[in-house]
Amino acid sequence: MPAGPQDSFQERKRRLRASFIEQLPDRLRQARELLAALTTSERQDEPLSQLHLIFHTLKGSGASFGFDAINASAKEAEQTLREVLDGDRRLSPHLLADLRRHVQTLEELKLSVDSAMAADSQPRFTLPAQRADEAGSNQRLIYLCDDDPILARDLSDQLGCFGYEVEPYASLEALRLAALKRLPAAIIMDIMFPEGRDAGPAAVAELNARLDTHVPCLFISMRDDFQARLRAVKAGGYAYCRKPVKAVELAELLDQLTSRGTPDPYHILIVDDDPDVGQFYAMVLDAAGMVTRVANEPERVPAILEEFDADLVLMDLYMPHCSGPELARVLRQIPGYLGLPIIYVSSETDARRQFKALEVGADGFLTKPIEPERLVTEVHLRAERMRTLRSLMIRDSLTGLFNHNTILQLLKVAMASCQRSGRLLCLAMIDVDHFKAVNDTHGHPTGDQVLMALGRTLRLRLRESDIVGRYGGEEFAVIMTGLDADQAKTIMDSLRESFAAVTFIADGTEFHCTFSGGLAAFPEYSDPSALIEAADAALYRAKRAGRNRILIAHSNSRQ
Ligand SMILES: Nc1nc2c(ncn2[C@@H]2O[C@H](COP(=O)(O)OP(=O)(O)OP(=O)(O)O)[C@@H](O)[C@H]2O)c(=O)[nH]1
Questions:
Q1: Tens digit of each residue's pLDDT (9 = 90 or more) over 518-531
Q2: ipTM for the complex?
Q3: Which stretches make up the GGDEF domain (predicted)?
């Protein structure tokens, strides 16, 4: 039979089990030595803790790797040692003899990889939120159905600024006919219609059944009751937004729904002092499409996190020199990791101890042995949540671009990285021309549409590596690396020309907008505030020189 991904998973598991069996005598020898050093006359916390850690690890790994006999014997010994460490029991000669007996039982076990493999169930991974995308070739075509024709038209126009081709429909019948003729990439659907309070989800369900497909769907509604949300979920709704909805939120959701590219996999850092256990979790999560990194030494974690952008940390509870809660506390004291989800994985079942460990700001507790499927689901759900929350914290709600604080942070990070690598960096500050007049003439909502369109133009036209943010009001900041100021100016000029060509329509009147920009380059300006000040000054000059142009700041011509 050809080797498939499942075979390689089983093969890796086999290797880990073999390595566990190989290391077992050495661990038991350490346990024997520690036991020999223990006397009943005085309390010796250090060897007792070390011994506890050995049995604790054996208990967890035994369970994870399917060696039930190891798990059972180590569990009893661990419990006894825990009681001694807590002061609930004295270290009597009888108790020492008991511990030696446990070590002996473990030494005498006849372990075989094959028997453990045979007892293993085949892991299956069913990742939540796998999105079907069978909407046909037109990735930008969206149907929006709402019985309020003004809202349908207005929202469609706004979504147009995000690059979507949105067709508004004010009746369910009109939408049905359109969908039967040509399938859209997604449908945005209201819940309540004259046909009934739940007519929107019913129509979507009927359409899917009729076409034998699943058209991705977002629901929008004034309703916020459980029933409405449940109907939407039953009809296969991907998201539910309460009215009034922001076009930028819908655009973000549509981006997720209609993107054909695979989403960026979750990055999971696994911290476990036992290399085999760490590898085991990594193997399970890798097989589910996540990217993992294993740290066996807690002290290396901050350095690893600096270059591995983790969505979540999976952490062992008991580790020598630095426990899981201690490491969690260290991380929480670093501002960038205050919100990083930390999940403990441990065979600790005592609820009091679990709570204590969580108190330091960790987010969850998974008790060993954990089924691969459950591990994948738990990690996936928490990492997904983290991404959503992070996005809300760092993005501007109108344009979906990075907000003011985030762009400043990112500029600092990018400049520090360019400093190390010797790469060039340019900052462009751009500002819509005569924007006050747009608001005054066409109204604030139209002004908002202009800002959304500019944000979108910047995001779609620039490289993935460029960082775009809304600096404030009608001012945007763009960080470009690996380019000198002249190259950056060429790009910004081309964007400026494209934006000037966009036709906006408000109340039947067409109008155009332009923007001006100021560019400053690193290392000519070597610290973030000097770079921003220089780009801003160049922007100011561009405005004074007549607008609709990009000017470069030079340190010898500062004004
Ligand atoms: N619609 C809308 N307007 C905003 C927003 N933030 C700031 N503004 C408006 O942007 C306008 C900025 O106007 P000014 O700074 O006077 O400059 P300008 O009219 O753009 O003219 P120049 O920059 O000199 O070309 C103000 O009227 C603000 O109220 C926003 O989020 N939405």
A1: 999 999 999 999 99
A2: 0.93
A3: 423-555
